[in-house]
Amino acid sequence: MKIGLNLPVMVPGLDRRTILEWARRIDAGPFSSLCAGERINFPNPEILVTLSAAAAVTERVKIVPTVMIAPLHPPVLLAKRIATLDAISAGRVVLGVGVGARRDDYAAAGVPFEGNKLKRMESAVALMRRVWKGEHIVDGTDRPTEPRPLQPGGPEILVGALAAASIQRAARWSDGLNGFSFGPSMAEVELAWQTARKAWTEAGRSTAPRLSTGFWYALGKNARQQLDEYLQRYLGFLGNDVAQALAPSVQTTSAPVLRERLRQLADLGTDEVMLVPTTADPEEVSRLADLIS
């Protein structure tokens, strides 16, 4: 099982030095991917600008937007941006897409929250793949939308889906799943993986789904406090009471527990875990590298 690491983009106080230090350390460590998730109405840096900076100072790790909220973006423009990121990274992009759950992100982007978001996402991905193949999208033009991604046909696309119906739909068009689990919950992950494997077979797919997931963690002497403060801030949109009630379900606040969760996920046949740090301290990369090496 591979282990990727998110940049701490949801932690306050990031600056140029910190972002680039994390990127360089992740690339130098035992990690498979450098990742970041998307929020709009939140004090985090924009995902593709940040990952472009990271791609420019790294050479080895995959560059993974874990969740681009596809309905928030014009599909052709998003295809161009992802193709550019693929060029900057020399073909290292893996794209995660999802529909998101925050009304305020949709409002900030000026996009309706209501409507069939799954269908909108699927249509966007289909159009992006046409762009990446070099098809002419705009009538009356003599050139397709460029640049083309370095990876033929575009990067691998994973979908953030956990519900059975969403996974079954994803089997028709995605390359796999890129989920997220509080805790993490092994029962939840196992059910998702079983559902995906069955759905891929029933859809007649020639390759098995790529199965990736992520979860929050904290290490160090103040790990519990650090994690609780992070969750209170990040889950605040649910209300303080809900955030406080959910925090105890996340138990990955020590090296032994983190090792055990990674072992359990490997036993379930997980292809990659993309860990989400709750501190911006670059030393966290070294602490995690020592733990998994």
Description:
With 293 residues, this protein is α/β, with parallel strands linked by helices. It has one domain: Luciferase-like domain (TIM Barrel, Alpha-Beta Barrel). It has eleven helices and eight strands. The chain has helices at 16-28, 47-56, 75-88, 103-109, 117-133, 164-170, 186-202, 223-234, 240-246, 255-267, 283-292; strands at residues 2-6, 33-37, 62-69, 94-98, 156-159, 176-178, 210-213, 272-275. Strands 1-2-3-4-5-6-7-8 form an eight-stranded parallel β-barrel, surrounded by four helices. Helix 3 links the parallel strand 3 and strand 4 (94-98). The longest helix is centred in the middle third of the chain and has 17 residues, at 117-133. The chain is globular. The mean pLDDT is 95.
In short:
This protein is an alpha/beta fold and 293 residues long. It has one domain: Luciferase-like domain (TIM Barrel, Alpha-Beta Barrel). Helices cover 43% and strands 13% of the residues.
